[in-house]
Specification:
globular; 29% helix; binds zinc ion; alpha+beta; 7 strands
Amino acid sequence: MNNKELCERYSFLIPRNRFTGKISDDFDYSYTELDAMPDGWRKAFGERMCEEIRDALIEANCLDGYRISQIKEKYGTLRWYDFGATQKVYDIISKYEYISGFICQHCGSPYAKEFNDGWISTICENCAKIPHLDWINATDDREPIKKSLIITGYSNGESYTREIPVWDTWCAIIEDYLSGKYGDK
Ligand SMILES: [Zn+2]
């Protein structure tokens, strides 16, 4: 999808003034909020993530009020900050933030490891040939990706446990990767 198509389908990707919430009068679709997502993750699941968030917002009738405040990478994983979300949207974001830790942030390869050369990043062997990175520094002793995330917490005087399925989304990403169906960018 080009930027105009993205903004039409996912209205929350239209950049807005952070303080007033207004869309600039001269906005020309030259960029969207999704541009802040590292290229590899965007290729691997950017549009899939937006589509899931959109579905959940429509279901709860809150697409119009939903706003992104920031999308970025931190410690080798995705961070997606927003407001106007529902519980279901938070679960979708948690799922993709988790999955991002297994996907190369540069090229989208699902064969990525965590690098720590003073700066944590998630990178594949190919991209590690970029001179300043050393594949040796990649950790290989991490747990493999989980089939689902278990979230526990405490809210309104009660403890809760929620399960967020990860596996189907992970398999869909791998399938896209292997069949060359990754998005552009
Ligand atoms: Zn890579």
